[in-house]
């Protein structure tokens, strides 16, 4: 498929799944604008392909989101990928930790999709990167799971609002991804349980029936498909990429 002539904005595009999405869409011919808070990560990913440029921004700040769309220019494809994870039992979760998870994972997605929709004129694709945590519960990540459940509810509601137009909105829900974010989770599990890093990683892999982590390229392939001809009927869906877990 070719996305020549299309511009895509990807939040959290400097690392992990966001960086893979950026390269995948650039190779498909799109002009790619990546955003995030860390200039060094954005620069490194943008250096990987001439069709990628970067605009610094914070998805939890309304003015910053508006500014990054202004810097990007009109976008036909918007991927709300920015996110963060934290792990703690509910009884020890502080309000600040709860608010932080909601701010980046839910409010940030809301601000990104809302601003993306506002500037679309004609054909468009809105894609939220959620998680299997938005489809089921996991212990010790209640704020994160609540935020990701919220993303799916928002996507389903927005899909009904825009169903008669040329724009669609969907959520991609991967299981544990083979990314630096999961590497951090492995380190946290190891430090709190006394397991080795390899044992902690194996525990996460075992949550998938395929006994593996999901590759970022699998998320990219799904996102590209949602932008391809023939995907018009995909609207308001939460697409699990999890080896059969959910």
What are the salient characteristics of this protein?
246 residues, alpha/beta, Rossmann fold, 7-stranded parallel sheet, 8 helices, 7 strands, 45% helix, 15% strand, globular
Structure description:
The chain starts with 6 loop residues before the first strand and ends in a 5-residue tail after the last strand. It is 45% helix and 15% strand. It is globular, with a radius of gyration of 17 Å. It folds into two domains: 7-175 and 215-241, Rossmann fold (3-Layer(aba) Sandwich), CATH 3.40.50; 177-213, no CATH class. With 246 residues, it is α/β, with parallel strands linked by helices. It has eight helices and seven strands, in the order βαβαβαβαβαβαααβ. The model has no long low-confidence stretch (mean pLDDT 96). The longest helix is centred in the middle third of the chain and has 24 residues, at 95-118.
Estimate the mean pLDDT confidence.
Answer: 96
Shape: globular
Distance between the termini: 30 Å
Order of helices and strands: EHEHEHEHEHEHHHE
Summarize the structure.
This protein is of the alpha/beta class and 246 residues long.
What topology emerges from the helices and strands here?
Blueprint: E1 7-11, H1 16-27, E2 31-36, H2 39-46, E3 52-56, H3 62-72, E4 77-80, H4 95-118, E5 124-129, H5 142-162, E6 167-174, H6 180-193, H7 197-205, H8 216-226, E7 238-241
Parallel strand pairs: 1-2, 1-4, 2-3, 4-5, 5-6, 6-7
Helix pairs in contact: 1-8, 3-4, 4-5, 6-7
């Amino acid at each position: 498929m070719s996305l020549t002539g299309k511009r895509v904005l990807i939040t959290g595009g400097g690392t992990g799944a966001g960086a893979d999405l950026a390269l995948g869409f650039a190779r498909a011919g799109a002009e790619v604008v990546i955003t995030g808070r860390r200039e060094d990560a954005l620069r490194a990913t943008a250096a990987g392909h001439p069709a990628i440029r970067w605009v610094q921004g914070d998805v939890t700040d309304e003015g910053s989101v508006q500014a990054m769309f202004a810097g990007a220019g009109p976008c036909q494809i918007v991927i709300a990928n920015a996110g963060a994870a934290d792990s703690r039992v509910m009884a020890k979760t502080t309000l600040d930790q709860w608010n932080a998870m909601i701010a980046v994972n839910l409010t940030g997605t809301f601000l990104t999709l809302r601003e993306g929709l506002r500037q679309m004129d004609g054909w468009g694709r809105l894609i939220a990167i959620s998680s299997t945590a938005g489809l089921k519960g996991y212990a010790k990540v209640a704020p994160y799971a609540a935020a990701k459940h919220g993303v799916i509810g928002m996507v389903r509601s927005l899909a009904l609002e825009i169903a008669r137009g040329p724009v669609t909105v969907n959520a991609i829900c991967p299981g544990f991804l083979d990314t630096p974010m999961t590497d951090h989770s492995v380190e946290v599990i190891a430090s709190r349980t006394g397991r080795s890093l390899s044992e902690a990683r194996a525990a996460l892999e075992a949550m998938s029936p395929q006994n593996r982590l999901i590759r970022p390229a699998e998320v990219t392939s799904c996102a590209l498909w949602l932008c391809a001809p023939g995907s018009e009927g995909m609207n308001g869906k939460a697409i699990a990429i999890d080896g059969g877990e959910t």
